[in-house]
Amino acid sequence: MTVLKKKVQFSFWVFIALTILLVIFSVQNSGAIEVKLLFWKPNVSLSILLIGTFLTGLITGALYAYKRFLPEKGEYIEYKELPPEDKSKVEKDI
Questions:
Q1: Helices 3-28 and 46-69, packing angle to 10 deg
Q2: Which residues pair with 43 in a beta bridge?
Q3: Cα separation, 5 vs 16, whole angstroms
Q4: DSSP character for 30?
Q5: CB-facing half-sphere around the CA of 71: CA atoms within 13 A
Q6: Is the per-residue pLDDT at 40 higher than 70?
Q7: Is the pLDDT of residue 72 over 80?
Q8: Cβ atoms of 42 and 34 closer than 8 Å
């Protein structure tokens, strides 16, 4: 398994663990609370507020990562032909 696959797999399990903890915490704290947003004071279930905050952070992080790791316009990645002995190593990893 490559290092990238291990990192993705680890990130996936951390995400699953955080999601489970969020659901447990949200169910236990599902009472209505008053949220002050400038001059507006709506009553919202705490669980809905927590899940909404989690999803907002998740989407923001994904958009940041997407923008951060894409090459800029005009940039390109050079692909070089691997020697035959290196190709066999790559095929074994897949």
A1: 160
A2: 34
A3: 16
A4: -
A5: 6
A6: yes
A7: no
A8: yes
Give the residue from 16, 13, 46, 1 showing the smallest Cα distance to 28.
46
> 35 pLDDT exceeds 90?
no
Query: Rounded distance, CA 88 to CA 86, Å?
Result: 5
Least confident range of 5-14, 56-65, 77-86: 77-86
Encoding tokens for residue 5?
């696959």
Name the burial class of residue 70, with classes exposed (0-12), middle (13-18) and buried (19+) by CB atoms within 10 angstroms of its CB.
exposed
Tokens of 32: 């209505």
CA dist 5 and 57 (Å) reads 23
Q: How many CA atoms lie within 13 A of 13 on its CB side?
A: 5
Find the distance separating the first CA and the last CA of the chain, reported in whole Å: 8
